[in-house]
Amino acid sequence: MAYQQSSVHAYRHTSVKTASQGRIIVMLYDEAVRQIDLALRLLDDQTRQLDLVNNAVVKAQDVVTELIVSLDLEKGGELAQNLLRLYLFFNDRLMEGNIRKEAAPLKEIRALMVNLRDAWKQIEGETPAGRQPAAVGGINIAG
Predict the structure, then answer these.
(1) For the chain, which ranges sit under pLDDT 50?
(2) Concatenated DSSP letters for 2-24?
(3) Which residues span the domain enclosing 64?
């Protein structure tokens, strides 16, 4: 069992290390959507384990924070500034949904994130830069 878990961990680690910048961004969006979906399922089940809802939403916020720090505001210009404002809005709405334990703000952000993920997925598949391996030291997007 431990061997299988370490193999899965090694595979995930390698897939992230060798992914293009565009692919990493898509992976970040996928993880945020996964965490929001978990929080929504728990809220729909009217769980008493509100700590699990909190954990899922906080993980989604952590992903949004990672997207924020990956922005290159100098090179990205207006597009990077707009993404920054949008990501800050995401975090605000996620926090509101988490505090109130309401599904509506989470659903709103999930829909927006799915749209952005799909756009990044399309960009990643169409541009040569989207297929380049990520630079050592993290991702750096211009917008």
Answers:
(1) 11, 130-131, 133-137, 142-143
(2) HHHHHHHHHHHHHHHHT-BHHHH
(3) 2-131
